[in-house]
Amino acid sequence: MTPYGPVAIYLAVALAAALLFTVLPGLMAQRKPNAVKSEAYECGVEPTSDVSGRFPVRFYLIAMLFVVFDVEAASFYPWAVQMHQLRVFGLLEMIVFVIVLGIGYAYVWKRGGFQWR
Amino acid sequence: MQAAADLINAVPFWLIVLVKSGIVLLVVITTFAYSMLFERKIMAWMQLRPGPNRVGPWGLMQPAADAVKMMFKEDLTPNTADPLIYKLAPFISLITAMGVFAVIPFAEPTGTGFFGAIGDVNAGILFVFALTSIGIYGISLAGWSSGSKFPLLGSVRATAQMISYELSMTLSVIGVLILAGTTSLMGIVHAQDRVWFVIPQILGFIIYVITAVAETNRAPFDLVEAETELVGGFHTEYSGLRFGLFFIAEYLNMITVSCLATLLFLGGWNALFGLTFIPGLIWFLAKAGAFLFFYIWLRTTLPRFRYDRLMDFGWKVLFPAATLNLVLTAVVVAFWPTNG
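YS: structure for the whole thing
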């Protein structure tokens, strides 16, 4: 028996519980809607404008950097669990990898990719 | 004949797993309820006030009172919101927060294996990180689908913060994986029979603790719900039980992170000072509880970070430090191997 069977059962139970919690407010909660209540909250002031508009590009940049670096971090995992077998060969391979990673990191730093002001 | 025997063997097993899943979920939800009370009590004592003490003796029924109140609160959906995604977001947060407990072993499995993990997956740590990463979707979709300014700002901040710190978190545990030689959580605990990994991996542990606090959006990294700037952050528009689901998810994530710290760095259910007559489960709960207390202690002690400093710290300090820890561990294992 693979351990993923029980995991699937547990996830099904958790799914059922989460569904219950999601449906419950519709059944239990009282409902007295009015126009002001269903407005978007803006500290009690009437909403001045829509949410659409310009947004700092830095957030998108961070998202892209995350994808690049996290894939590289994930590729450390299979190497890490084999380290006791690979020894010095593994170390050298990894140092080359870290150097490549470091060049990219230094480039991003130098171009102001991590700058937040 | 063989088929009949298989059937007899198969049916109880599924039933056992089903019952165990139910028990784990119940325990986890109860732990959530009381960790909330625990937090309010501890914070109150640190601030020299009594804390919740009206509902039941010593305030012990407070979580039940809160749950009932939340259930009967009006469930509002702003008319600018995207209704489907608005309702889906807390669900995603909750299911990922609960799902993680499928692979967390609470104690050494005994004869029937009842106290071990529900599934001792050999990629346990990857499973945990995969699910917690999906949890970020819950927060970012909640803010985006609310159709309101403060939630949108809060959720974009949250997403940027969580993905930045997740990077250092995934890197900080690699040192542990190198020493243990496995990604199975059970295997990692077994590898700590002689010495807890907090000692050889002290740098990794410090990075893990910092990123763990940031990942769960807790003070001093709770910029996601910085009340003074963003009202309630990504869950500003949520009310009643839907808000409660985010609350449950946040606390479950705290518990997950505490359990993970215990398993990866604090020796899991291994006893301290050779006190092996105390069961492993008690040791595990004590260590995870101590870590949870540390969380609350941080919240009462430290002021909130500034956002640019937070991002600077994550990318310019923690990321290189985690990589350095990785390289140092690899050098030590390559030249002075201890086992394997």
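YS: worth flagging: Chain A is about 65% helix and 0% strand.
IM: good catch. Also Chain A has one domain: 4-110.
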